[in-house]
Amino acid sequence: MEPSVARLLLLFPLVALPVQLCEIPRGSSSLIRSLDLKLLRLTEDLSKEPNPSVYVALRLSNEHSLEREVQYLQRLENAFQRTPSSSVPADQQEQPKTGLLALHLLALRAACQDMENRKGWRLVTQLKHQLHKEKKQIDRESSGRPITNYYQYSLGVLALCVHGKKIDAHVLHKLLNAEKNHRFMHNVKLSVDTEAMAGLAFACLAQTTFYTSDLVAEISLALQRVKEKILQAQTPEGAFGNIFSSPLAVQLLIATGMSTKKPECLKGMAAILGSLEQGQFQNPMIVSQLLPVLHGKSYVDLGTMQCQGEKDTLVLGTSSPSSGTVSLGAGMITIHLIVKRPQAVRNCTNRPSRCPPAPLSWPSWKLLRSGALGNSHLKCRTLCMALSSLQ
Ligand code: B12
């Protein structure tokens, strides 16, 4: 067979892809919006280091708070520049780790920043250099491990790929070999997160035109295998691996254009949404891996981001009625709390430190069962939680 035909056949599932993606069920829009707001609220917390992953998630969302996003990007840039100490000579400074550097580059792509300047070239060169060091370490180690881990190695490849940068074939071969030789482990178990991140890198690479047909064929086969391993890792409850690896796993399914009609996809999304409603997603890193999924996107979509015509409609605070909606299973109720004699609220707001933070999605059944809507002896704690979950 002609090499070009073989290449086309291997790429076919990807070419045919973005028609029907692994979608989320209709009627989840309030749940998605509350997750959007949850991440947006994180950007307000000046006591925490800004997280590039949170920024990427907000940028991949269908709704934005553009001014806040610009401010957060500025904070990210400042924090990133601070990483190496200015009191240490440049050649002795510790470089940011592969994963952090990669996430920073993903954030810059999510902002559609021009990389054709000294700052851009420096960052890209730095990441290429870092990946070379990782590759050398794999050669050196009998166990074939990189300096950080294969998750970060994959993030590095993905970041260069979405910026349209060509990556050294040797660097790619190390990742391909690791996938083939089942090296993506987390402790002693298969790391579905790492499989998914490597898969996202392969999905991006398979769309580029830099590489030889042999390498593209290897990449496409690796992508198919990763997808199969992820599907095989699905539990009877629907999670891929565990519930925390499921967001990245579904990103991978989205990136490979998996059909909505596939039961694996429907079951996976149902498990994710169920866990979300139960407030199981609390780790901001995982929440930021989940949000793109809820908008039907994956990190591979960063490669084609245009940053134009974005909806600047995400507003924090209680003033917007839609921000006060709480979803309950498949249906949805809207609760407007009107407190006429706000003694309990005064008690809460006078001592904000006593207000416990509400879990990510404080389920509305708790709100209802607590009697928050009819009980005149409403307790401070209940009201605080109810109000903060509605913000
Ligand atoms: C690699 C990895 C590890 C490595 C990290 C060190 C190394 N040599 O690379 C090791 C093996 C040590 C590890 C340990 C654990 N991990 Co881990 N880990 C990951 C993985 C696959 C990638 C993290 C990464 O490199 N990110 C890229 C860099 C740039 O981002 P980062 O924020 O700097 O990453 C750091 C943190 O993520 C931290 N870290 C790693 N695991 C965990 C877990 C928790 C709860 C926290 C707070 C931090 C943390 O270490 C990373 C490297 O410095 C993620 C998968 C994912 N989806 O994120 C799971 C993941 C984050 N880990 C998880 C878990 C459960 C654990 C352990 C509790 C496992 C255990 N039973 O011992 C421990 C806890 C470690 C801790 N710090 O508290 C869960 C977290 C689930 C949750 N509740 O949110 C994840 C999502 C995997 C999963 N699907 O279950 N982990």
Which features characterize this protein?
391 residues, mainly alpha, Glycosyltransferase, two-stranded antiparallel sheet, two-stranded antiparallel ribbon, disordered N terminus, disordered C terminus
Question: Can you walk me through this structure?
Answer:
- It contains 16 helices and four strands.
- It is mainly α.
- The strands form two sheets. It has a two-stranded antiparallel ribbon. Strands 3-4 form a two-stranded antiparallel sheet.
- The radius of gyration is 23 Å and the shape is globular.
- Bound molecules: cobalamin.
- The site of cobalamin has 21 residues, from helix 5, helix 7, helix 9 and helix 13.
- Cobalamin binds next to helix 5, helix 7, helix 9 and helix 13.
Shape: globular
Strand content: under 5%
How far from one another are the termini? 60 Å
Reading the helices and strands in chain order gives HHHHHHHHEEHHHHHEEHHH
Protein name: Transcobalamin-2
GO molecular function: cargo receptor ligand activity; cobalamin binding; metal ion binding; molecular carrier activity
Disulfide bonds: 22-265, 161-204
Signal peptide: 1-21
Question: How is the secondary structure organized here?
Answer:
Layout: H1 3-15, H2 29-42, H3 52-60, H4 66-82, H5 98-110, H6 118-140, H7 150-162, H8 169-180, E1 185-186, E2 189-190, H9 192-205, H10 213-232, H11 246-255, H12 263-277, H13 284-294, E3 325-328, E4 331-334, H14 343-350, H15 364-369, H16 380-390
Antiparallel strand pairs: 1-2, 3-4
Cobalamin (B12) binds next to α5, α7, α9 and α13.
